[in-house]
Amino acid sequence: MRPRPVLHLISYTLAFIALGEGICWLISRLSGDPAQTQWALALSAGMVLGIAFLMWSLTRGRITLSRRDGFAIVTFGWVAATVAGAFPYLLSGVISHPVSALFETMSGFTTTGASVLTDLEFVPRGILFWRSMTQWLGGMGVLVLCVAILPFLGVGGMRIYHAEIPGPSKDRLTPRIASTAKLLWGLYVMLSLAQTVLLMTGGMDWFDASCHTFTTMSTGGFSTRTASIAAFNSAYIETVIIVFMFLAGANFALHYRALRGKPQVFARDPEFRFYAVLWLGSCLVLSANVWGEVYPGIGQALRAGFFQGTSIMTTTGYVTQDFNVWPNASRLLLVLLMFVGGCGGSTGGGIKVVRFLVVLKKIARELGRTMHPRTIMRIKLGRQSLEESTVSNITGFFVIYVAIFALASLVMALFTPDLVTAASSVAATLGNIGPGLGAVGAVETYASIPATGQVILTICMLLGRLELYTVLVLLHRGFWKR
After folding, report:
1. Rounded to whole angstroms, how far apart are CA atoms 330 and 370?
2. Domains in the chain, number
3. Domain enclosing residue 77, as ranges
4. Cβ 338 vs Cβ 351: under 8 Å
């Protein structure tokens, strides 16, 4: 790894963070926030921009990026963005503890949605807008935005794109990676505008509509209300959000191709078919399980089951119901959905649907080999045969994911009141979901978790968003050798 190009690219990331904080300062000023909040956002933007300019000045020169540089830029870039993004919370006094501020910011950029804030109605609008914006920037990836805008990256942009975009395969919509990044961000913005308009049609003001669009399209789940989406008590708003959560949990490359006149790509894509069947089946099972026992009417049960099922499976984390009091079967199904997550190439977290599909096919192949050991069997997704290296990579990902979940749960058991809270807090942060069960359930926050526990969960969020390998490769001693 070479520090100069790494720090140079991180300086652009910090410049985007400063721009976002500057926009939130303007929102804060227009909204009549307290002077301290306006000052905090303005000072944050100025400080981060100053640091970015200093880094840019000291590291100027011809930029060429190796594969190792790409991993370092993404990992350290996300850490730098988190530190820079925590300034508004600390300087405004909304969050006083530095660890909690970093936790909240990492939760934003990784689109996790786990929060330490309790009374959101008393939080200034400028801070709430920044909180939502961190999720929107993190959803598609602020470094992918750099790839789209900075023309000089060339092949180096591909290194960053592959390290930040979630999923085992990275669809290239055009031969040039910068053009692909532009198209993805353009589609992201277009869908965001559409949702904002639909939410305003349902009665939300521009502020709530914008914030909830930011956190829906990014599958983040931060809300402007303490009660989350339940505060609006609107079947129309819930329906709109369900639709866009589902879309955000699907591969954005499919949306692009569908808009180009090929809507059949959804039916032909094996991952999307599996995603849709799993989503529909899970929501129906949840609705059936809570009908009669929790909700007397079938309409109430369907509304709750489909909203919470979609929210958890896509790793958005919005809540309309306290699913902590649902029957054990429903709670267990929700935890299992936390591990599944969205599709590869979506803004969703979790292990990803495509990986589960490949593992299921691998299990079927091994069973077939038991009966016919000499038969050569290839694993296919649709018409495409997967390389054994890809299958091995996915299997390894599963093993590492489960190992990290088990180890982190063991550590969190030292800082939480019960095992359910320990395990679900790790599942919810490693999968970038937000709400868990127990003391971090649907109507609770992470404020009760001590600072050391918040550090562990912050690391889990970063590992989950960057899909393990991008971060863990930095721990390999060979990474640091020239």
Report:
1. 35
2. 1
3. 3-234
4. no
